[in-house]
Amino acid sequence: MTREKLFYYIYLLGFMSLVVAIPTSNYVMSLSQIIMIGAWLFYGHYKIGLKQLLNKKIAWVFISFYLLHILGLIYTTDFAYAIKDLRTKLPLLVLPFVIFTMPRPSNKFLQLIVWLHALAIFLASLIGIYLAWQKGYVNYRLYSPGISHIRFGLNICLSAVLLLYDIIHRKKLIPRILASLLIAWYIVYLSLFGSVTAIVILGILLVIGISIFIIRHSPVWGKIIYSFILTASILGFSFLIKETLQLILHHSKEKIDFANLEKFSADGHAYLHDTVYFGKEFGQYVGLYYCPDELPQAWAKRSKLDYYGKDLAGQPLMATIVRYLNSKGLRKDARGLAQLSDEEIGWIEKGVANAQYMQSNALKRTIMEFALGYEHFKEGSGTRGNSIIQRFELWRASIEIIKKNPVIGVGTGDVPQAFKQQLMAMHSDLSHTSLRSHNQYLSITIAFGIIGLLWFLWILLYPLKINQLYKDWRYVAFLIIMAVSMINEDTIESQAGITYYVFFSLFLYLLSIEKETMNNFP
Predict the structure, then answer these.
(1) Does 218 fall in a domain?
(2) Quick one: average pLDDT of 120-132?
(3) Strand 280-281 relative to strand 284-285: parallel, antiparallel, unpaired?
């Protein structure tokens, strides 16, 4: 075996380990890219490789994005964070350079990559479910143990697209069956851990895909039927939201006659009708009919967890118990607790504070959580851990920062500092956190202004023109995944996010040029 072949195979090994690491491990992500760089160094043939790189417009699109961050150093003040950000964004520079100065892998190898990615997601999902079951937490973040659950959901969306392409275009039956089973598993998995972002993205892709197919291939009557089905689906979705909100609207209209509230429990102990500590949920005072003399002792007979300690999700257990009983319309005393099943006691231990959360699908649960968070926010309780309300608060802060620095932004390193100052000026309860805008478009505008946002939009959209990628629905679907995810996430501000974006942009480009040959392999 020649030296070139040896290091080319090492490069391919790094390529494979990277696609496995993207949905599973930040550490292996970095290690894989180091392996690829090392293989490139020893492979040689630099002149041929650089000549090849110069002809790849898509590579320079991503490299230009890294250059934008370097330009942002000119007017930044926090160089420590700026250097950290540049280090996180290194895949913008490394992956285009290495991939396009090395020989293009064979079509069989690229197909293997699709399946390795799917297998890594499948195994990671099984491990996540096992860990969540073993630890007993009701926490969707545990279902993706290697990386952020949001990024993991994006990997699932793309893998579903690539596998669907195989089902449609490959002739062999067994791979098509396996691909179908994996897609079915993805749907089951997303339903289990409730990744609303991934579910919404898959829904958008499904609607767009079916709509395009119907418009191109269906007769007039087919288009009419599809329009009715789509309209009915939208109305059904609207009804689900209305039904969920109806619970809140109903409770919010109820008036409490405090003078006529019972003062003692059935067992003769005094009630504490609290209206302050436990607050309101869905218009109800959670702390009404709370019996501090009975509930701790009754709980001790049903569970080993300390009533005054934490539940398994790290929340005050007392509050979880009281909130759960309230959600079922039960009094917070011994007899109220006695009406709960052992299964429900287990849910409370895991941190479930509302009975309806365990009886609702992920979408309905998200709507309820949002409504509850909005209620707390209106009553002056801040964002109180509700991620959706927090996003609205962060977007409001983002717009204020942009107003102060509209043209070129605050620079590569000053985004966290700008957020901290703005949140403090707003007297926000998020001022003590390190949260950013949770919107990639706002993040770019804050850092680099309107000029930077336009540059970023060009970076997103221009690759569609390269090699007519707009005709490859795999790349178009990937771009939709990225564009939608960036509405409620700083998708590419993390190592997992930027590596996912750059690697699969380049990988899908390689897939689109299946007939192209590269003659720089010795």
Answers:
(1) no
(2) 86
(3) antiparallel
- Is 214 in contact with 226 (CB distance < 8 Å)? yes
**Residue 229 pLDDT > 50, yes or no?**
yes
Which residues make Cβ contacts (< 8 Å) with residue 232, sequence separation at least 6? Answer: none
What CA–CA distance (Å, rounded) separates 520 from 101? 9
Give the H/E segment covering residue 280: strand 280-281
Range of 338's domain?
A: 226-379
Residues 461-492 pLDDT 10s: 999 999 889 989 999 999 999 999 999 889 99
Task: Tell me the CA distances in angstroms from 261 to 292, 332, 353, 425, one per residue in order.
Answer: 17, 14, 24, 43
Let me know: does 496 contact 148? Beta carbons within 8 Å. Answer: yes
Q: Is residue 11 in a domain?
A: no
- State the CB neighbour count (10 A cutoff) for residue 384: 15
Look up residue 397 and give its two tokens.
Answer: 């802060």
Average pLDDT over residues 432-444: 89
Spatial contact of 407 and 447, defined as CB atoms under 8 Å apart: no
Position 74 in a domain: no
d(CA 450, CA 406): 6
Domain count, the chain: 1
At 170-210, the pLDDT tens digits run 778 888 999 999 999 998 888 777 677 888 888 888 888 88
How far, in Å, CA of 389 to CA of 371, rounded?
Answer: 9
CA atoms within 13 A on the CB side of 511: 21
Pairwise CA distance, residues 58 & 61, whole Å = 5
